[in-house]
Amino acid sequence: MSDLLVTRTLSIEDREEAVILFGPRDQHLRTIRDALNVKAVYRSGELKMEGTAEAVDQFERALQQLRQIARKQGELSPKDVSGVLEVIRGGTARGGASVVAMDSGRSLRTRTDGQGRYIQALQSHDVVFCVGPAGTGKTYLAVAWAVSLLKSKQVRKIVLVRPAVEAGERLGFLPGDIVAKISPYLRPLYDALADIMDPDIVKKYMESEVIEIVPLAFMRGRTLNQSCIILDEGQNATVAQMKMFLTRMGANSKIIITGDMTQTDLPRTVKSGLADAVHRLRDVEGLAIVYLDQSDIVRNPLVTRIVKAYEEETPRKRPTT
After folding, report:
1. Is 47 in contact with 54 (CB distance < 8 Å)?
2. Where are the alpha helices (DSSP H) in 95-175?
3. Among 55, 184, 186, 269, which residue has the least CB neighbours within 10 Å?
4. What distance in Å separates the CA atoms of residue 97 and residue 82, rounded to the nearest whole number?
5. Quick one: CA torsion of 102, 105, 111, 113, rounded to 10 degrees?
6. pLDDT 10s digits, 109-137
7. Is the pLDDT of residue 222 over 70?
8. Phi and psi dihedrals of 146, rounded to 5?
């Protein structure tokens, strides 16, 4: 049954989008077609695909991922195409790629193609930006990846960082030590750690500073070697803060920045450091920028519909130069 040929049609009416998607002289289209053994012909705004059911399904998923990337970046490279094909053919949305073995005995796995691209970027780059709406797993997977690096002794330390915008970065008036002061703003990171690792081990690591929590404003002047450093809610960092954070990276370290462009708490007159960075650094070698969208939301299905309703009312804009 799996060898039976099926035919499917995908509408791509925007000619400019088709040119970007298929590449110069249809280079990208030929690459996908040859890799998946699918016949594909584009005419009058429609792409006709023919192949086995599995191959056509993979072909359509690859195009959907590439359309998403093209809409964010305004272009596609052969590297983008090969990266998407690697994820699609690896079946990350059909059972998932294992990210880390959790203390509960189960393995954390990616659940969407977008998450697969995210993990692929983490595996092959020292600095990764992940931009996407709530519920796409961008923070959870970052913490899980950091834990896997710690367990495999690829890093000696995990540093969790978050801007404390609501407190104006002025935490002195709050009671307790620095951990107590910043705890409310790092709760999502605590929750992810507690789900992935045994709480007693988390406590032990925090007491010995193997796992450290730091407000963004307190990162200035530090250099972190052999560490995995995660900046969550990166959209709430200013341009100066983002530059400061990125330059904390020492030898054999990894940096992960997550954020949602639509959820900034900065004043309207202050430019988001995340928006600035993904535009300014988009061509820097050794750095990856991954965009997730509604199709990558893995919370309650209602979350997807809520996000879609808000985005339809206030369309997301590309960062300005």
Report:
1. no
2. 113-124, 138-151
3. 269
4. 17
5. 60
6. 788 888 989 998 999 999 999 999 988 98
7. yes
8. -60, -40
